[in-house]
From TrEMBL:
Xref: Gene3D superfamilies: 3.10.170.10, 3.50.30.30, Neutral Protease Domain 2
Species: Subsaximicrobium wynnwilliamsii
Domain PA per the UniProt entry, residue ranges: 314-412
Required cofactor names: Zn(2+)
Protein's UniProt name: PA domain-containing protein
Region (Disordered): 231-261
Keyword entries, A-Z: Hydrolase, Metal-binding, Metalloprotease, Protease, Secreted, Zinc, Zymogen
Superkingdom per UniProt: Bacteria
Subcellular location: Secreted
């Protein structure tokens, strides 16, 4: 035992917990209406995947209740059939922050500023001194309420953001903004996430602070158990800023948030997400077809393809091959237009001979690259399943790159050439990188939302309140994300997805839920009756059958749908205000209402 005070004790971590183990004597209500004297203790596992809260009978030693404070948002299998679209949309007029804060620290952050949901939804912008005067009166890097930042890295009163790719218990790298707190880092989404970790962690730091500051306005403050190192004498228990781990190597396609009682440090874990097989390898540089096109790289057996063995990018005019046969554009034989192909990128139609044979004929003719277009069968186009990979082995390996495009895109290029147009094309490097969840504001907001609902429901010391099968935490978290990413031009029927960027979908994708969020019943027909849907989805690890209504995320999706409908009913009556801090319109009223109701929610233990 390390220390004791009254009926509370602190034991050493025993090399089984990341932190020393608090133990408190208390009373626990049972399902039969009786009450038992119990010891309450919590163990944060060294791998940070579970944070167990255990209640043990003080007399018999029987375990009465076990709960996990970490909410792991199992997003399931990814549908990567839609390519990531990095074409940014313009941001509508939106005033997120107060004109000035009470404390000027000169800080600036290059981030996907709200209401932008992800890199697919808009560009980054440079925010200068964005800390809210009420919620973070001394800036985001202060911890002692005195002039001057205590930290120049992504650490402050509300959050400490660092990376954990190597899965260590030690604190990983955090971006350093220097004495001027300048967090304006380069971001190239065509690079591996590790290359842009500073930009990613800056966005993670920003989003945690933004969630802190926004929801502070509606009641998630110190007295209610929010996450702060220093509570500045405003009540509640301090010493609990969020510890946010970015690019964490312990998982994939997921995220989690662990919420202990007030005064204990919560943890947010953000993972990388599975890469899309669809990459825009082909760029048309001129004319009406200008733009990027989805394509697939061949198998490596065909000759290292479009990777580092070649000096890429390769740029040249496109030309349709002609081998002088009845199917001249399939290029299965020596090309009769070899002189015209030399020094250009060959366009070849898929057909009766192998991919290797086609590419070999083009290389023999002096082509500097090859685009193979699919035949008219959309079922195996590059953007449909089953996927086509140009297989086969070339000996020796090819010295020119090659890619595969769908029939529609290839036909458009061939038609332009047949009409006498010049089509200039660039083949770029094929870098298949995972996507970074820390850049997806909807995921960060969702996870932070778990912290809000867990701290508020049942009170700031009742971290086990949302554990029963019909708890609505997933729904609140989706709703938190939806509310802070609304735009002035949105409509009630407009379909909204969660985590479309991370799941490899375009902006209009459904994301990680069974349906879009929308008031249109043809788009989302969830009603409360859906919570009684006993359709069997499969079995769990114990061999027990699991039905739709037993999945917390699906229960949550129904609840979020109800809240989303309520939001639009309020907006219809009171209007919409883009100011999330000082607004008084319908969306602001609903935000206030939900936080107040969470504050009143009683404890409902799942015993």
């Amino acid at each position: 035992m390390l220390s004791s005070e009254g009926n509370s004790y602190v034991f050493s971590n025993g090399n089984v917990s990341k932190i020393d183990i608090p133990v408190t004597l208390n009373l626990t209500p049972l399902e039969d209406g009786n009450i038992r004297l119990t010891w309450d203790l919590s163990i944060q596992k060294l791998d940070n995947l579970h944070w167990w809260s255990v209640r043990v009978d003080a007399v018999s030693g029987e375990i009465i209740n076990v709960a996990d404070w970490i909410r792991t948002c199992d997003f399931g299998e990814l549908d990567m059939k839609a390519a990531n679209n990095h074409n940014n949309k313009t941001q509508e007029g939106f005033s997120m922050f107060k004109p000035s804060a009470t404390f000027m620290d000169g800080s600036q952050y290059s981030v996907f500023a709200l209401p932008i949901q992800s890199p697919n939804h808009g560009d980054r912008s440079l925010l200068v001194e964005p800390a809210n005067a009420t919620a973070s009166p001394f800036g985001w890097h202060d911890t002692n309420a005195l002039p001057g930042a205590e930290h120049t890295i992504t650490r402050g009163n509300n959050v400490f953001a660092s990376e954990n790719r190597d899965i260590t218990t030690a604190t990983g790298h955090s971006p350093d903004g220097g004495a001027n707190l300048n967090f304006n880092f380069e971001l190239d989404l065509d690079e591996a996430p590790a290359v842009y970790e500073d930009a990613s962690l800056t966005n993670l730091f920003y989003m945690n602070n933004a969630m802190h500051d926004i929801w502070y306005q509606y009641g998630f403050d110190e007295a209610s158990g929010n996450f702060q190192q220093n509570n500045y004498g405003k009540g509640g228990s301090g010493n609990d800023p969020v510890f946010a781990s970015g690019q964490d190597g312990q998982g994939l396609n997921n995220a989690s948030f662990g919420t202990p009682p007030d005064g204990n440090v919560p943890g947010m874990t953000m993972y990388l997400w599975g890469e899309s097989r669809f990459k825009e390898l082909v760029t048309v540089n001129n004319g009406p077809l200008a733009g990027q096109y989805i394509s697939l790289n061949p198998s490596t057996a065909i000759g290292n393809n479009i990777t580092g063995a070649f000096l890429l990018p390769v740029t040249g005019d496109l030309i349709v091959v002609d081998d002088g046969t009845a199917a001249p554009t399939e290029g299965c034989n020596a090309l009769v237009n070899a002189a015209s192909v030399a020094g250009k990128i060959a366009l070849i139609k898929r057909g009766s001979c192998s991919f290797v044979a086609k590419i070999q004929q083009a290389q023999n003719a002096g082509a500097i690259g090859v685009i193979v277009m699919n035949h008219n069968n959309p079922d195996n186009d590059p953007n449909y399943a089953p996927y086509v990979t140009m297989g086969g082995a070339s000996t020796p390996a090819f010295t020119i790159p090659s890619v595969f495009v769908n029939y529609q895109d290839g036909l458009a290029m061939a038609t332009a050439l047949n009409n006498g147009q010049t089509v200039n094309v660039t083949l770029k490097d094929y870098n298949v990188y995972q996507l970074d969840g820390s850049l997806d504001n909807s995921i960060v907001a969702h996870e932070y939302g778990h912290g809000i609902s867990n701290r508020l429901a049942g009170g700031r010391f009742s971290a086990n309140c949302l554990t029963n099968p019909e708890q609505m935490g997933e729904g609140w978290s989706d709703w938190f994300a939806l509310m802070i990413t609304m735009n002035a031009g949105d409509t009630p029927e407009n379909p909204r997805g969660i985590a479309t960027y991370s799941s490899g979908q375009t902006n209009d994708g459904v994301g990680i839920r069974e349906a879009h969020y929308s008031t249109d019943f043809n788009i989302n027909n969830f009603t409360y009756a859906a919570t009684n849907d006993d359709t069997v989805l499969g079995t769990n690890s114990q061999g027990q059958t699991v039905s739709w209504n037993e999945i917390p995320h699906n229960i949550g999706a129904v609840w979020a749908t109800m809240l989303w409908d309520l939001n639009w009913a309020y907006i219809e009556k009171y209007g919409f205000d883009a100011d999330l801090y000082n607004g008084t319109s319908g969306n602001n009223k609903v935000m206030q209402l939900v936080i107040e109701v969470l504050n009143f929610k009683p404890v409902t233990l799942d015993l």
